[in-house]
């Protein structure tokens, strides 16, 4: 008697960043035969050159800031000279050691993720990959020493998670020595004397904040009216005020036409003819998806004008067997969203229960000092009539824990649906806002009202107390 065994579903993943990693892990856990092709290392740029190293650098800057501001809390640092006289020591940062540590942590994280995949039974191929139709990937590897070897992977489902790379301007070409993209900064051995940052979006603002705290003179060139265009206006205003108070030069409504090296540094020329001289320059002018030359169009996958892959809310492309996750897609470019897309894609492809990703429920955070965390509808959308809501803002200065900690800047802002009081969004500007936003995110995700949020017990004293205080102030009278 012959038995027919059902063949395992085959999933091929191109790119091992957050989206590809989660897709592969989810597929393996659901019993699929999974292959991942990754050219740099599991975790992709998010782990190796972007999120992990940059946030590690920012954590170091935060530690420096805490030491520097401790005197406000009555903590004083002194050393003694040979004569016994007390002198205040200078806070110094060994940037070479900092960068060595963060790159070590990034590699460690990448190896841990690779081990998890292999443990789950995923086949990991180190090499470049491209699509050869809707159900096949071709991986090129260097195993043959004098030749390039090729692996052909047949798949029922393909997940593309190839990420993006920093945008490069022809008039400001990075050289990795004086002019940098954000992936190149980690080779610096010393704190830049004067860092010019071109671009005041999330990446530019984060690095400008970090390097100013680490001791660099910083000039931030912003083409818009204020830093962080597109973010909550009140939050952006707080950050810009903090930047200026801390000695940063912010050039608003200024566009850098070119950045070139000089004998001793760099010079940025603005569109109005002004020039800014510095020792180094960071170009933070956006990114481009890594979608060119990998067979997407030939396989029938639709792309946007910018080269991003069009996907729906379950990460599916225009080709039923192909999904896309992360910064290469036209979804929100966040590591957490990429991970969710990767999981959602595999759940959908394998017929498991799936909740389509709702972008309005996504939390995001900007790791400046203080941080900015957001979720849900924005104040601008409410003011423009796109969403119907009430707005309440509570400054952190009134919070008892904030006073104890010496926090001067920040606020909690909640948005609630007019009439029902359902929480539809919020903004928090505070140290560790990335941790504080979770309770608001839960309220948005589960459609809690401000009264339900207010009834939760927050610790006294705590910064989270401002969230329940704000919710209580928005009480809906029935």
From TrEMBL:
Q: Which cofactor does it need?
A: FAD
Listed EC numbers: 1.6.5.2
- List the Gene3D superfamilies hit by this protein, alphabetically: 3.30.390.30, FAD/NAD(P)-binding domain
Q: Pfam families attached here?
A: Pyr_redox_2 (PF07992), Pyr_redox_dim (PF02852)
Q: Could you tell me the keywords of this UniProt record?
A: FAD, Flavoprotein, Oxidoreductase, Pyruvate
* SUPFAM superfamilies the UniProt entry points to: FAD/NAD(P)-binding domain, FAD/NAD-linked reductases, dimerisation (C-terminal) domain
Name the enzyme group at the top EC level: oxidoreductase
InterPro entries documented for this protein? FAD/NAD-bd_sf, FAD/NAD-binding_dom, FAD/NAD-linked_Rdtase_dimer_sf, Pyr_nuc-diS_OxRdtase, Pyr_nucl-diS_OxRdtase_dimer
Provide the leader sequence positions.
none
Q: Does the keyword Transferase apply?
A: no
UniProt domain FAD/NAD(P)-binding: residue ranges: 10-342
Domain Pyridine nucleotide-disulphide oxidoreductase dimerisation: start-end pairs: 364-470
A GO molecular-function annotation: NAD(P)H dehydrogenase (quinone) activity
Has keyword Flavoprotein?
Answer: yes
Record's family? Belongs to the class-I pyridine nucleotide-disulfide oxidoreductase family.
- Its protein name is Pyruvate/2-oxoglutarate dehydrogenase complex dihydrolipoamide dehydrogenase (E3) component
The organism of origin for this protein? Antiquaquibacter oligotrophicus
């Amino acid at each position: 008697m012959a038995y027919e065994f059902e063949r395992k579903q085959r999933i091929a993943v191109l790119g091992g960043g957050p989206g590809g990693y989660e897709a592969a892990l989810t597929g393996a856990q659901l019993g699929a035969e999974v292959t991942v092709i990754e050219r740099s290392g599991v975790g992709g740029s998010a782990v190796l050159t972007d999120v992990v190293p940059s946030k590690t650098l920012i954590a170091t800057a935060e530690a420096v800031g805490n030491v520097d501001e401790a005197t406000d809390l009555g903590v004083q640092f002194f050393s003694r000279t040979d004569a016994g006289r007390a002198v205040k020591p200078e806070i110094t940062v060994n940037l070479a050691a900092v960068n060595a540590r963060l790159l070590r942590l990034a590699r460690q994280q990448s190896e841990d993720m690779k081990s998890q995949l292999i443990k789950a039974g995923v086949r990991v191929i180190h090499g470049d990959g491209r699509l050869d139709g809707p159900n096949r990937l071709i991986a090129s590897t260097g195993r043959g020493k004098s030749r390039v070897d090729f692996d052909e992977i047949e798949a029922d489902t393909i997940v593309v998670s190839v990420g993006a790379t920093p945008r490069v301007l022809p008039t400001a070409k990075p050289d990795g020595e004086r002019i940098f993209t954000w992936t190149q900064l980690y080779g610096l051995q010393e704190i830049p004397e004067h860092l010019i940052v071109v671009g005041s979006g999330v990446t530019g603002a984060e690095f400008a904040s970090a390097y100013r705290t680490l001791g660099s003179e910083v000039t931030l060139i912003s083409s818009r009216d204020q830093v962080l265009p597109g973010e909550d206006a009140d939050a952006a205003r707080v950050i810009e005020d903090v930047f200026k108070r801390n000695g940063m030069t912010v050039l608003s409504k200024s566009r850098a036409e070119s950045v070139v090296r000089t004998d001793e540094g760099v010079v940025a020329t603005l569109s109005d003819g002004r020039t800014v001289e510095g020792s180094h320059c960071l170009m933070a002018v956006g990114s481009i998806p890594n979608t060119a030359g990998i067979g997407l169009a030939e396989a029938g996958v639709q792309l946007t004008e910018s080269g991003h892959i069009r996907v729906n809310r379950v990460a599916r492309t225009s080709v039923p067997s192909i999904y896309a996750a992360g910064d290469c897609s036209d979804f929100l470019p966040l590591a957490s969203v990429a991970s969710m897309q990767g999981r959602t894609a595999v759940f959908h492809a394998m017929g498991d229960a799936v909740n389509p990703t709702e972008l309005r429920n996504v939390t995001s955070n900007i790791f400046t000092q203080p941080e900015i965390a957001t979720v849900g509808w924005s104040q601008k959308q409410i003011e423009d009539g796109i969403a119907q809501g009430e707005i309440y803002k509570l400054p952190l200065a009134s919070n008892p824990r904030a006073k104890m900690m010496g926090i001067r800047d920040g606020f909690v802002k909640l948005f609630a649906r007019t009439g029902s009081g359902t929480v539809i969004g919020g903004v928090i500007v505070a140290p560790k806002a990335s941790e504080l936003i979770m309770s608001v995110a839960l309220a948005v995700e589960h459609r809690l009202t401000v009264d339900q949020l207010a009834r939760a017990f927050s610790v006294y004293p705590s910064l989270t107390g401002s969230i329940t205080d704000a919710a209580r102030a928005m009480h809906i009278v029935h």
